[in-house]
Design brief:
By secondary structure, the chain is α/β, with parallel strands linked by helices. The chain folds into 2 domains: 217 residues, Glycoside hydrolase/deacetylase (TIM Barrel); 66 residues, no CATH class. It is 41% helix and 18% strand. The protein has 14 helices and 15 strands. Strands 1, 4, 5, 6, 11 and 15 form a 6-stranded parallel sheet that branches. A 4-stranded antiparallel sheet has the order 7-8-9-10. A 3-stranded parallel sheet has the order 12-13-14, covered by helices on one side. 35% of the residues are buried. The mean pLDDT is 92. The site of zinc ion (ZN) has 5 residues, from loops. Pfam families: Polysacc_deac_1.
């Protein structure tokens, strides 16, 4: 079994080498392959101690440089229209969460290479908030000196990894089951930590694009704005009524900011169900992005596509190997 695994990995490295010496087109001859890639944040150094959502500006540049030279990169809309080139890997690029660092680091690089991308963003700014709760929680947990906190009348204790745990469940996993309104008491519990964090040069790890930046991105012909829900709630964990409001408000607020129809939607946390897909279609989304399909049957739904999430813990070469393979396992 181990030998088989080594053999398989060697084969993937050999394939990558063939691409690096410019002969990749022969490898993909008579084959169509497609991937939609998801990035989250870009920072200066690729810091992963707060979370696993950021790659460095250098890594991103190297990645874009390689894929633009070796593969065919198209817009998400062309991807859905199957405007694929034969004998190559056809790639569409997406970003989730709408970080200001996308505007600062990714957009200039994408423009330099003329690479199209779709940015899936929330409109939590509508609630006078310019960050998403997972980033808030990751940062305050990392910097907090509190050994325990009380949330929802439960005593959460900090473990050696810096996570707050109650009864074997992390605060983060608990929050994935809650609406933004229910999560808000945490802003008060960690207000001192958050004040300190905001005084430090940590903006790249939490700050979202403001409305002017979103508007500016929407105006650029190379880029599209898609919705990522209203407050990044896990739509499978709240009531259907709450979930439909999240989907609808996310769309409407973005449309008023961008002054154009918003037709692309990506489920927060990749979490969805068939009723929510029907609802998203009903209110006018033309392209609905997932991470993984829930069922095999959904692969036949022309609105849906799965995506390949870039993992910052994996080095550049291995990332390309997995990209060719289309999955990490
Ligand atoms: Zn997200």
């Amino acid at each position: 079994m181990i030998l088989l695994k080594i053999k398989y990995r060697l084969l993937l490295f050999l394939k990558l080498f063939i691409f690096q010496i410019g002969l990749g087109k022969y490898l993909l001859r008579n084959r169509y392959r497609e991937r939609i890639i998801v990035f989250h944040g870009i920072d200066k150094t690729g810091e992963t101690k707060y979370n696993s959502r950021f790659v460095s500006e250098k890594y991103f540049t190297q990645f874009i440089d390689f894929i633009s030279k070796n593969y065919n990169i198209i817009s998400l809309q062309d991807f859905y229209d199957k405007k694929f080139k034969p004998n190559t890997l056809n790639i569409a690029i997406t970003f989730d969460d709408g970080y200001a660092n996308n505007f600062k680091y990714a957009i200039p690089i994408l423009e330099k290479y003329s690479i199209p991308a779709t940015f899936f963003i929330t409109t939590i700014q509508d609630n006078n908030t310019n960050f998403l709760w997972p980033d808030f929680l990751d940062l305050v947990s990392f910097y907090s000196n509190q050994n325990s906190i009380i949330f929802e009348n439960q005593h959460y204790s900090k473990n050696h990894k810096g996570e707050f745990i109650y009864n074997g469940i992390s605060l983060k996993n608990r929050c994935k089951k809650l609406s933004w309104k229910e999560i808000q008491p945490l802003l008060n519990i960690f207000k001192d930590e958050w004040k300190i964090i905001q005084q430090q040069p940590l903006n790249d790890y939490w700050e979202l694009m403001n409305y002017n930046q979103i508007k500016e991105v929407a105006k650029k012909p190379l880029f599209k704005i898609g919705s990522h829900g209203y407050t990044h709630a896990n739509l499978n964990s709240i009531t259907f009524e709450e979930a439909t409001l999240e989907v609808l408000k996310g769309k409407k607020v973005l449309e008023s900011i961008c002054e154009k129809p918003i037709l692309d939607f990506a489920f927060p946390f990749g979490s969805y169900n068939s009723e929510l897909i029907n609802y998203s279609e009903k209110i006018g989304f033309k392209r609905i992005l997932l991470v993984d399909y829930n069922t095999e049957n959904e692969k036949n739904n022309p609105l849906l596509r799965n995506r390949f999430v870039i993992n910052p813990h994996i080095n550049f070469k291995m990332q390309l190997v997995y990209l060719l393979k289309g999955k990490y396992l």
